[in-house]
Design a protein that fits this description.
Helix 9 packs across helix 14 and helix 9 crosses helix 15. The protein has 2 domains: 249 residues, Rossmann fold; 170 residues, N-(1-d-carboxylethyl)-l-norvaline Dehydrogenase, domain 2 (Orthogonal Bundle). By secondary structure, it is α/β, with parallel strands linked by helices. The longest helix is centred in the middle third of the chain and has 24 residues. The relative contact order is 0.10. It contains 17 helices and 11 strands. Helix 5 links the parallel strand 6 and strand 7. Strands 5-2-1-6-7 form a 5-stranded parallel β-sheet. Strands 4-3-9 form a 3-stranded mixed β-sheet. Helices cover 44% and strands 12% of the residues. The structure holds D-mannonic acid. The site of D-mannonic acid has 9 residues, from helix 9 and helix 13.
């Protein structure tokens, strides 16, 4: 079977509606996983088709050569399969120019950040890619020469020396206040590694906050086979996603930007209400479904949400525990938002794996659950549903699901296992969440907070 490429385009999919060969790279993106290919690259493809501009994306993989091996032989092209109960819509996305594997070509990344034609650097490096210690400060041991900070330092230093303008540095990760966190962490890094650059970076670059949302399961061999059958072409870069997509970006650009807002993105003065609602309701319920669902023997989100007990718990997290802590934006209806999330979770065609959501819990839980717990605690309210989910997470990191699902996939897995071994039972709570613990959050696990799930099944 021949392979998708610019010379070999399928008849059975929508194609890029612009001349890719006439366009230049305007965006450098760190962390070119499936999510970005279903989200930012899709918006950028649509924006170039509708409104032009030189907005091709140079993707950077910080470690793995996998995505480069999938996309580079295909000239950056790949098929996005929008999937629902109603079937699949196929679109070939043209906005990715090529993929650079950081350890193989670090100089090329620095050249691109320093190029006058580059205006925006975007990030989906996952929560752990920001290299934060439990206190939230930069973990200098983790932020080494392979981190984004090193590439930003070297690329921005070249821009400063050349008298070029700054860049929009746009975090698209599921962190609270993601843009402000990126600015603070980069400043901490530059203060040590390039003191003369810090003030320039803050003065010339902007760090908009953003909320990104699209459910993107990891692609399976069956997905590739299905698209191959439909297109009569092999595409190693297939990405499957849901029809829904949302992108809310703070209106704080350092210079030019694609016409993302003309193709559905919302550019707003304050992202916080959208971001808080998404992290605490969507992601908060997702993580609960993951740990409790795996424990109940389910593999997929749509199976877990079909279980009455788990659905009630997910609804309680969203409606009773998270929603009261959210200061919604005008026109935002959190009840309707929860209804829409339940319907998205129930999409039977997505096959979104619970084990995918369960990974990196130590990095995800602070903004998904602990912030909600802290706000409710301050208001004198309890959160029995989140505590039940926390119990399931603790059992997960203890290794209770490992026989079926493999070893715990979390950058702090070893420390968490050690905390269990040392403290056992409720002692782990203090070791993990207390002051000086592994995950600090402002929530005090006091005696008034019932921790009954921890003793279940022990
Ligand atoms: C999920 C998210 O894997 C996870 O932790 O909760 O990736 C989720 O699917 C996205 O944030 C949806 O926008």
């Amino acid at each position: 079977m021949s392979r998708l490429s610019p010379e070999n385009l399928p008849a059975g999919a929508a194609l890029p509606a612009y001349d890719r060969t006439a366009k230049q790279i305007g965006i450098v993106h760190f962390g070119l996983g499936a999510f970005t290919r279903a989200h930012q690259a899709w918006y950028t493809d649509a924006a170039m088709a509708a409104h032009g501009g030189d907005w091709l994306i140079a993707g950077v993989s910080l470690r793995s050569p996998d995505v480069a091996q999938q996309l580079n032989p295909q000239g950056g092209l790949y098929t996005l399969a929008e999937t629902s109960g109603g079937g699949r819509g196929l679109r070939v996305i043209g906005s990715i120019a090529d993929v650079i594997v950081a350890p193989e070509s670090p100089a090329r990344i620095i050249d691109l950040i320093a190029a006058p034609t580059t205006h925006i650097v975007t990030f989906t490096i996952t929560e752990k890619g920001y290299c934060r210690a439990a206190s939230g400060a930069l973990d200098f041991a983790a932020a080494g020469e392979g981190s984004v900070y090193r590439f930003l330092r070297d690329g921005l230093a070249r821009r400063q020396a050349a008298g070029l303008g700054g860049l929009t540095l746009l975090s698209c990760d599921n962190l609270a206040d993601n843009g402000h966190q990126l600015r603070r962490l980069l400043c901490e890094y530059l203060a040590v590694h390039a003191p003369a650059l810090g003030a320039w970076a803050v003065q010339h670059c902007t760090f908009p906050c953003s909320m990104v949302d699209r459910i993107v399961p990891a692609t399976t061999p069956a997905d590739r086979a299905e698209v191959e059958a439909a297109l009569a072409l092999r595409d190693e870069g297939v990405v499957v996603t849901e029809p829904f997509s949302q992108w809310v970006i703070e209106d704080a650009f350092a210079g030019l930007r694609p016409a993302w807002d003309a193709v559905g993105a919302q550019i707003v003065a304050d992202v916080a209400p959208y971001e808080t609602a998404k992290l605490r309701m969507l992601n908060g319920a997702h993580s609960a479904l993951a740990y409790l669902g795996l424990e109940s023997g389910y593999s997929f989100v749509h199976e877990a949400i079909a279980d009455r007990r788990l659905r009630a718990l997910a609804e309680a997290i969203m409606r009773q525990e998270a929603a009261p802590t959210i200061h919604s934006a005008p026109g935002m209806d959190l009840g309707a938002y929860a209804d829409a999330l339940i319907a998205r979770f129930a999409n039977p065609a997505l096959n979104h794996r619970l084990i995918q959501i369960a990974m990196d819990g130590s990095q995800k839980i602070p903004q998904r659950w602990l912030a909600t717990l802290a706000d409710n605690q301050a208001a004198g309210r309890e959160c029995p549903a989140i505590l039940t989910a926390l119990g399931a997470w603790l059992r997960h990191v203890r290794g209770d699901n490992a026989a079926q699902w493999g070893k715990v996939d979390d950058p702090r897995a070893a420390e968490l296992a050690e905390a269990w071994a040392q403290n056992g039972k409720q002692g782990i709570v203090a070791a993990v969440f207390g002051n000086g613990g592994l995950l600090q959050c402002g929530w005090q696990p006091t005696a008034a907070v019932p921790l009954h799930p921890l003793t279940e099944g022990e």
